[in-house]
Amino acid sequence: MRFASLWVPRRGPVLCTVREGALFPIGRGRTLADVSELLASTRSSQPASLEAAAELLGQDPMAIARWDEVEDAEPDESRPHLLAPVRPAEVWAAGVTYERSLTARKLESHEPDIYERVYTAARPELFLKATGPRVIGPNGRMGLRSDSAWQVPEPECALVLGAAGVVFGYTLGNDLSSRDIEGENPLYLPQAKCFAGSCAIGPMVVSTSELGDPYHLELAVRVVRDGRLVFGEQTSTARLHVRLETLIEHLRRDNWMAQGTVLLTGTGIVPPCPRRRTAATTWMGLTGDFA
To answer: 42-53 pLDDT, tens per residue?
Structure first.
């Protein structure tokens, strides 16, 4: 099952299932905003699946929008548009989980050996990326640090977790990063990773039962500047150096997690440093053998 959050004028955010090219609201008699709210609204502290939670609350048989009408709509409160499908209490992220990430960070850092050590260590790199109100949705404008000359999109497979660490679904995340700031000193990582508009999620959450094998997903990114494609690359989650369960286990260790917590699992794509600082449009994709 696929889930999306739709902004509806004079109604607000509405969580919907996406099927047959249309969006159907979840929750008869009440309105849910996103997937984290769906998980938190169930009487059981641990619903069996997103499908079970949606069935428990019911679905409106009438569609409120066509997917092709809102897929590319820019945020505007006067018209329907997509929001981040999950806006959790916390978004966490993992680093150096692909060999490509290791290679890039060793080249750009003044302290390259620490990345080699974390790549081979039993304990993964984890950090707090954002909170729900800071998350940008599809087609939204992300932020740029005024003190950075090298900011890159990082497409990542994102896990939607329950409070006990169970994976309920998957989505696409953009861990926008200031690579020159982290490269100058690894202790600057919080500033390089967490700033206004640095995290985007969406457009959909796909349930675990529909997605299938999370290690056979294709991630792609295209960067367009002044109407011209300046970068394009793709990778696969098959290249992950760390198992997803290892990331989850370390995130849960001695840590509180809310229903719908999101974990970005690292990037295997690193765009080059731009020659000049100008705004760009970034497209990202996550594809797989969905059921």
So the answer is: 766 677 899 999
Total residues belonging to the chain:
291
- The whole-angstrom separation of Cα 47 and Cα 160 is 13
Residue 183 DSSP class? H
254 Rama sector, left if φ>0, alpha if ψ -120 to 50, beta otherwise: left
Tokens of 211: 């997605």
User: Which of 73-77, 119-123, 221-225, 271-275 comes out lowest in average pLDDT?
Assistant: 271-275
How far apart, in whole angstroms, are the C-alpha atoms of residue 234 and residue 201? 18
> d(Cα 107, Cα 241) in Å, to the nearest integer?
19
The span from the CA of 134 to the CA of 88, in Å, is 10
Task: Classify residue 203 by burial, with Cβ atoms within 10 Å: 0-12, 13-18, 19+.
Answer: buried
Cα 16 to Cα 282: distance, rounded to the nearest angstrom? 25
Q: Are 122 and 253 in contact (CB under 8 A)?
A: no
Task: Identify the CA nearest to 82 among candidates 136, 25, 5.
Answer: 5
Using CA atoms of 137, 97, 216, 204 in order, give the dihedral in degrees to the nearest 10.
-10
